[in-house]
Specification:
Blueprint lengths: L2 H14 L3 E4 L7 E4 L4 H10 L7 E9 L37 E9 L4 E9 L6 E3 L8 H12 L2 E3 L28 E6 L4 E6 L31
Parallel strand pairs: 2-5, 6-7
Antiparallel strand pairs: 1-2, 3-4, 4-5, 8-9
Protein backbone atom coordinates (compact mmCIF):
# COMPACT_ATOMS: atom_id res chain seq x y z
CA UNK A 1 0.00 0.00 0.00
CA UNK A 2 1.48 3.35 -1.05
CA UNK A 3 2.05 6.17 1.41
CA UNK A 4 -0.20 8.40 -0.69
CA UNK A 5 -3.13 5.99 -0.42
CA UNK A 6 -2.61 5.59 3.32
CA UNK A 7 -2.52 9.37 3.77
CA UNK A 8 -5.83 9.69 1.93
CA UNK A 9 -7.31 6.84 3.97
CA UNK A 10 -6.42 8.66 7.18
CA UNK A 11 -8.24 11.77 5.94
CA UNK A 12 -11.33 9.73 5.02
CA UNK A 13 -11.33 7.95 8.37
CA UNK A 14 -11.02 11.24 10.21
CA UNK A 15 -14.09 12.65 8.45
CA UNK A 16 -16.25 9.53 8.19
CA UNK A 17 -15.26 7.30 11.08
CA UNK A 18 -18.17 5.02 11.99
CA UNK A 19 -20.05 5.67 8.74
CA UNK A 20 -17.79 3.84 6.27
CA UNK A 21 -15.83 0.60 6.23
CA UNK A 22 -12.66 0.13 4.25
CA UNK A 23 -12.79 -2.77 1.80
CA UNK A 24 -10.19 -4.74 -0.12
CA UNK A 25 -8.67 -3.00 -3.15
CA UNK A 26 -5.56 -2.98 -5.28
CA UNK A 27 -2.44 -1.35 -3.88
CA UNK A 28 -3.00 1.89 -5.80
CA UNK A 29 -6.76 2.09 -5.05
CA UNK A 30 -8.87 3.11 -2.07
CA UNK A 31 -12.33 1.62 -1.57
CA UNK A 32 -15.01 1.99 1.10
CA UNK A 33 -18.47 0.63 1.79
CA UNK A 34 -21.30 2.39 3.60
CA UNK A 35 -24.82 1.57 4.69
CA UNK A 36 -27.78 2.81 2.65
CA UNK A 37 -28.98 4.97 5.55
CA UNK A 38 -25.68 6.91 5.58
CA UNK A 39 -25.21 7.23 1.82
CA UNK A 40 -26.25 10.85 1.33
CA UNK A 41 -24.41 12.19 4.38
CA UNK A 42 -21.26 10.29 3.39
CA UNK A 43 -21.43 11.60 -0.18
CA UNK A 44 -21.87 15.20 0.98
CA UNK A 45 -18.87 14.89 3.27
CA UNK A 46 -16.74 13.40 0.51
CA UNK A 47 -17.68 16.31 -1.73
CA UNK A 48 -17.50 19.18 0.76
CA UNK A 49 -14.75 18.36 3.28
CA UNK A 50 -11.71 20.53 2.38
CA UNK A 51 -9.34 17.60 2.95
CA UNK A 52 -11.28 15.43 0.48
CA UNK A 53 -13.09 17.57 -2.14
CA UNK A 54 -14.36 14.77 -4.38
CA UNK A 55 -16.15 17.18 -6.67
CA UNK A 56 -16.72 14.80 -9.58
CA UNK A 57 -18.76 11.62 -9.81
CA UNK A 58 -17.10 9.72 -12.65
CA UNK A 59 -19.43 6.72 -12.81
CA UNK A 60 -22.21 4.79 -11.09
CA UNK A 61 -22.61 1.06 -11.66
CA UNK A 62 -24.58 -1.82 -10.25
CA UNK A 63 -23.38 -5.19 -8.99
CA UNK A 64 -25.39 -8.41 -8.91
CA UNK A 65 -24.03 -10.97 -6.43
CA UNK A 66 -26.35 -13.75 -7.56
CA UNK A 67 -24.34 -17.01 -7.83
CA UNK A 68 -21.22 -15.23 -6.59
CA UNK A 69 -18.54 -17.70 -5.55
CA UNK A 70 -20.36 -20.74 -6.87
CA UNK A 71 -19.05 -23.24 -9.43
CA UNK A 72 -20.75 -23.13 -12.83
CA UNK A 73 -19.11 -26.13 -14.39
CA UNK A 74 -18.32 -29.65 -13.33
CA UNK A 75 -15.10 -30.32 -15.22
CA UNK A 76 -11.67 -31.60 -14.31
CA UNK A 77 -9.70 -30.54 -17.36
CA UNK A 78 -10.68 -26.88 -17.74
CA UNK A 79 -7.88 -24.48 -16.93
CA UNK A 80 -8.06 -22.00 -14.09
CA UNK A 81 -6.03 -19.40 -15.96
CA UNK A 82 -8.60 -17.72 -18.15
CA UNK A 83 -10.48 -20.23 -20.31
CA UNK A 84 -13.28 -20.99 -17.87
CA UNK A 85 -15.76 -18.38 -16.75
CA UNK A 86 -16.56 -20.38 -13.61
CA UNK A 87 -15.50 -19.16 -10.20
CA UNK A 88 -14.30 -21.57 -7.58
CA UNK A 89 -16.54 -21.64 -4.53
CA UNK A 90 -14.91 -20.40 -1.32
CA UNK A 91 -16.51 -21.89 1.76
CA UNK A 92 -14.31 -19.81 4.07
CA UNK A 93 -15.73 -16.51 2.83
CA UNK A 94 -19.04 -14.97 3.97
CA UNK A 95 -21.91 -15.23 1.54
CA UNK A 96 -22.30 -11.77 -0.08
CA UNK A 97 -26.00 -12.49 -0.64
CA UNK A 98 -26.57 -12.20 3.11
CA UNK A 99 -26.14 -8.43 2.80
CA UNK A 100 -28.49 -8.23 -0.17
CA UNK A 101 -28.20 -9.31 -3.77
CA UNK A 102 -27.40 -5.90 -5.26
CA UNK A 103 -24.91 -3.14 -4.65
CA UNK A 104 -24.27 0.27 -6.18
CA UNK A 105 -20.71 1.48 -6.74
CA UNK A 106 -19.63 5.12 -7.12
CA UNK A 107 -16.32 6.17 -8.68
CA UNK A 108 -15.20 9.55 -7.34
CA UNK A 109 -12.53 12.01 -8.45
CA UNK A 110 -11.00 14.94 -6.59
CA UNK A 111 -9.63 17.47 -9.07
CA UNK A 112 -8.41 19.62 -6.20
CA UNK A 113 -6.21 16.90 -4.69
CA UNK A 114 -5.83 14.63 -7.76
CA UNK A 115 -7.21 11.64 -5.86
CA UNK A 116 -9.70 8.86 -6.63
CA UNK A 117 -11.96 6.83 -4.36
CA UNK A 118 -14.51 4.05 -4.80
CA UNK A 119 -17.62 3.95 -2.61
CA UNK A 120 -20.07 1.05 -2.52
CA UNK A 121 -23.47 0.69 -0.86
CA UNK A 122 -25.36 -2.58 -0.41
CA UNK A 123 -29.07 -2.68 -1.24
CA UNK A 124 -30.75 -4.76 1.43
CA UNK A 125 -34.08 -5.51 -0.30
CA UNK A 126 -33.51 -8.06 -3.05
CA UNK A 127 -37.10 -8.10 -4.32
CA UNK A 128 -37.37 -4.31 -4.67
CA UNK A 129 -33.86 -2.84 -4.47
CA UNK A 130 -34.01 0.83 -3.57
CA UNK A 131 -31.29 3.30 -2.60
CA UNK A 132 -31.21 7.10 -2.31
CA UNK A 133 -30.36 9.08 -5.43
CA UNK A 134 -27.20 11.22 -5.22
CA UNK A 135 -28.30 13.61 -7.97
CA UNK A 136 -28.54 16.42 -5.42
CA UNK A 137 -24.88 15.83 -4.53
CA UNK A 138 -23.49 15.26 -8.03
CA UNK A 139 -25.65 16.26 -11.01
CA UNK A 140 -23.79 13.79 -13.23
CA UNK A 141 -25.52 10.96 -11.33
CA UNK A 142 -28.72 11.62 -13.30
CA UNK A 143 -27.91 9.54 -16.38
CA UNK A 144 -25.65 7.14 -14.49
CA UNK A 145 -28.49 6.17 -12.15
CA UNK A 146 -30.90 5.81 -15.05
CA UNK A 147 -28.43 3.45 -16.70
CA UNK A 148 -28.07 1.39 -13.50
CA UNK A 149 -31.85 1.25 -13.13
CA UNK A 150 -32.25 0.16 -16.74
CA UNK A 151 -29.64 -2.60 -16.65
CA UNK A 152 -29.95 -3.85 -13.05
CA UNK A 153 -33.45 -2.79 -11.96
CA UNK A 154 -32.13 -0.86 -8.95
CA UNK A 155 -34.43 2.02 -7.99
CA UNK A 156 -33.08 5.41 -6.90
CA UNK A 157 -35.29 7.20 -4.41
CA UNK A 158 -35.63 10.92 -5.22
CA UNK A 159 -34.35 10.72 -8.80
CA UNK A 160 -36.03 13.45 -10.90
CA UNK A 161 -36.68 11.31 -13.99
CA UNK A 162 -36.03 7.61 -13.39
CA UNK A 163 -36.77 5.81 -16.67
CA UNK A 164 -34.92 3.55 -19.08
CA UNK A 165 -32.08 5.06 -21.07
CA UNK A 166 -30.40 2.22 -23.03
CA UNK A 167 -33.05 -0.41 -23.77
CA UNK A 168 -36.05 0.04 -26.04
CA UNK A 169 -39.54 1.20 -25.06
CA UNK A 170 -41.49 -1.64 -23.49
CA UNK A 171 -38.37 -3.69 -22.82
CA UNK A 172 -39.00 -6.49 -20.32
CA UNK A 173 -36.46 -7.25 -17.61
CA UNK A 174 -33.01 -5.90 -16.79
CA UNK A 175 -30.26 -7.36 -19.01
CA UNK A 176 -27.31 -7.07 -16.59
CA UNK A 177 -28.97 -9.20 -13.93
CA UNK A 178 -27.33 -12.61 -13.65
CA UNK A 179 -30.64 -14.44 -14.10
CA UNK A 180 -31.57 -12.58 -17.30
CA UNK A 181 -31.60 -15.08 -20.21
CA UNK A 182 -28.57 -14.79 -22.50
CA UNK A 183 -30.82 -14.91 -25.57
CA UNK A 184 -33.21 -12.29 -24.17
CA UNK A 185 -37.00 -12.45 -24.12
CA UNK A 186 -38.04 -10.89 -27.44
CA UNK A 187 -36.50 -10.15 -30.81
CA UNK A 188 -37.19 -7.46 -33.41
CA UNK A 189 -37.74 -7.90 -37.13
CA UNK A 190 -39.19 -5.89 -40.00
CA UNK A 191 -42.57 -7.18 -41.18
CA UNK A 192 -43.02 -6.69 -44.94
CA UNK A 193 -46.79 -7.06 -44.81
CA UNK A 194 -47.31 -4.63 -41.94
CA UNK A 195 -44.58 -2.31 -43.19
CA UNK A 196 -43.12 -1.78 -39.74
CA UNK A 197 -40.90 -3.26 -37.08
CA UNK A 198 -42.58 -5.90 -34.92
CA UNK A 199 -41.63 -7.72 -31.73
CA UNK A 200 -41.88 -11.48 -31.38
CA UNK A 201 -40.66 -14.21 -28.99
CA UNK A 202 -37.02 -15.11 -29.37
CA UNK A 203 -36.44 -17.73 -32.07
CA UNK A 204 -32.85 -18.50 -31.06
CA UNK A 205 -32.26 -22.01 -29.78
CA UNK A 206 -30.88 -21.81 -26.21
CA UNK A 207 -27.52 -23.46 -25.69
CA UNK A 208 -25.21 -23.84 -22.73
CA UNK A 209 -21.91 -22.04 -23.02
CA UNK A 210 -19.05 -24.21 -21.82
CA UNK A 211 -15.49 -23.20 -21.05
CA UNK A 212 -12.67 -24.15 -23.33
CA UNK A 213 -11.35 -27.51 -22.23
CA UNK A 214 -7.85 -28.70 -22.93
CA UNK A 215 -8.20 -32.14 -24.45
CA UNK A 216 -5.56 -34.72 -25.22
CA UNK A 217 -4.28 -34.29 -28.77
CA UNK A 218 -2.10 -36.80 -30.57
CA UNK A 219 -0.09 -33.96 -32.07
CA UNK A 220 1.45 -33.34 -28.67
CA UNK A 221 2.32 -36.93 -27.83
CA UNK A 222 5.99 -37.15 -26.83
CA UNK A 223 6.56 -40.08 -29.17
CA UNK A 224 5.61 -37.96 -32.18
CA UNK A 225 7.93 -35.08 -31.42
CA UNK A 226 11.12 -34.69 -33.35
CA UNK A 227 14.11 -36.04 -31.43
CA UNK A 228 16.38 -33.40 -30.04
CA UNK A 229 19.51 -33.00 -32.06
CA UNK A 230 22.71 -33.70 -30.23
CA UNK A 231 25.81 -31.53 -30.35
CA UNK A 232 27.51 -31.38 -33.73
Amino acid sequence: MSERIEALAQKVDAQLRGRVRRTAALAHELAYETDAANLLSVCRTLRDAPELKFEILVDVSGVDFLHYGRDDWQTQSATRSGFSRARVAHTDRPDPMEAGRFAVVYQLLSVTHNERLRLAVRVADTEEPVVDSVVEVWASANWFERETFDLFGILFRGHPDLRRILTDYGFIGHPFRKDFPLIGNVEVRYDEEKGRVVYQPVSITPRVLVPKVIRHDHRYEPALKDPKEGPR
